[in-house]
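Thought: the user wants the 3D structure for the chain below. I'll pass the sequence to the structure tool as-is, report back what it returns, then summarize two notable features.
Action: structure_tool
Action Input:
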Amino acid sequence: MNYEFIIAESAFQPHIALIRLNRPKELNALNLQLMQEIKHALLTFDQDDNVRCIIITGNERAFAAGADIKQMESKTAIDMLKIDQFETWDQIRKTKKPIIAAVSGFCLGGGCELAMTCDMIVASETAKFGQPEIKLAIMPGAGGTQRLSKAVGKALAMEMVLTGKFISAEEAMDAGLINRVVPEELYLDEAIKLANEIAVQSPVAVRLAKESVLKAFDSGLQEGLHFERKNFYMCFASEDQKEGMNAFVEKRKPNFTGK
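Observation:
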């Protein structure tokens, strides 16, 4: 598929795919077509056995500065309901392979929600995170009130959502929103480094482990523990588990095949 608003590379690095948001004049504002293109690329990468980790990024100036307001300003509540724009966001959450957001510059509104929908976030020192929808007399609608609250806690989430306050990359790191902060020129390299650390692991175990961590994020303790144990037992049905443990006993590097 030829994309208009993203650049997608399935072999950006060995076993690593890249999705780059590509609306630089609009600071990568998320319109409906761009989100559909992300959905299509993620579905394609999820079905590609050669891809083991996915990176979503923008450019140095902006990961994404928010949703495309021009597409929404004249819409009614019924119009928005019929559009069902959040269906594409659900697909991001359903992606089985790990997704890393590599963030620099503005990461606001829908952009912040997109980053939080990913599994990990690597940010440059210039990154700014925020949910400023309140300034437009609306509120976050793609998980901003829910994921932000779980990531940083009620007090900070409430302040950000009700005032539109931005936080710096360092503040986001301290609050537990992101994984690490690096100089601007290194943010994508650092995301690639993290992706490589994941890509050498067993794809089967990574998939099951990711599902289990998300279950903890989305459910209560007992339900999460039950889900974790089921996936733990499932690991022992894979050839990778036998290879990993044999390699450990034989003091050699494992060769995981995803089977």
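Final Answer: Structure generated. The chain has two domains: 6-199, 203-249. Residues 203-218 form the longest helix (16 residues).
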